[in-house]
Design goal:
By secondary structure, the chain is α+β, with helices and mostly antiparallel strands. Helix content is about 35%, strand content about 15%. It has one domain. The chain contains 6 helices and 10 strands, in the order H-E-E-H-E-H-E-E-E-H-E-E-E-H-E-H.
């Protein structure tokens, strides 16, 4: 005599599977994002080492960020395209993919050349077209971010959306503009690398209140620049 499943038994099994999936899938998503955060940290270490090599080769100065000169740390800008091989850090990287965070999902502003990372040019550069600051000017290297997870929410385009950013703006600027560039995309954390070469995952100190920024995980590292940006 064959025994078959009843409809009630089938429904119970389906319900159990659905409950288990609801429990397990978020765990898998968290684990996958943790792996991406580790990969991102590796990218930042390589960017940090490339920066240190650049500083050694240029008399102890960081690289400039010049609107007039289309050559930046990430490549040479030509209209809507970017030649990564012409970037100031490329001779030390030889790999443009290192400039991409695996968790970045925004739109490309610079042809994907800065897909996820921003440079602390507000404190590491001096005047447009001149060399960056001397490393001797950074007295607290462990408190001076060089690169970090960055993005920019463009309210002024249609439709508004998250795009890649070339820089990581300090709190004194982002709080004034109310448009932070630090993106906490790794399970609520943001990866940064400091001038002394160490990488750290940081939580936000000041949360955004605008719903689009909250959804985009764009918040503020702090209320002042001293702890994470100036190094002075």
């Amino acid at each position: 005599m064959r025994r078959a499943f009843t409809l009630i038994e089938v429904l119970v099994v389906i319900a159990v599977i659905a409950i288990l999936a609801a429990i397990v899938f978020p765990v898998f998503a968290t684990a996958r994002e943790s792996a991406r955060r580790t990969s991102c940290a590796s990218n930042l270490r390589q960017l940090g080492m490339a920066t240190q090599l650049y500083v050694q080769d240029y008399d102890g100065h960081y690289f400039q960020h010049d609107w007039q000169n289309p050559q930046y740390w990430f490549g040479r800008v030509n209209g809507s395209t970017v030649d990564r091989s012409q970037g100031l850090l490329y001779p030390y990287l030889k790999n443009g993919e290192v400039q991409k965070c695996p968790s970045f999902t925004g739109g490309f502003e610079y042809d994907g050349a800065t897909a996820g990372y921003g440079y602390n040019y507000g404190y590491l550069t001096q005047n447009w077209g001149t060399p960056g600051v001397s490393e001797a000017q950074i007295t607290r290297a462990a408190n001076c971010i060089v690169f970090g997870d960055a993005a920019l929410y463009k309210f002024w385009i249609s439709p508004p959306a998250v795009h890649e950013a070339f820089g990581l703006f300090p709190p004194s600027v982002t709080l004034q503009w109310n448009s932070p560039t630090s993106q906490f995309r790794h399970n609520g954390q943001t990866n940064v690398i400091f001038a002394d070469g160490h990488v750290k995952s940081l939580p936000p100190r000041v949360l955004s209140t605008d719903p689009p920024l909250v959804r985009a995980h764009l918040h503020h590292l702090d209320r002042t620049d001293d702890e994470f940006f100036t190094g002075r």
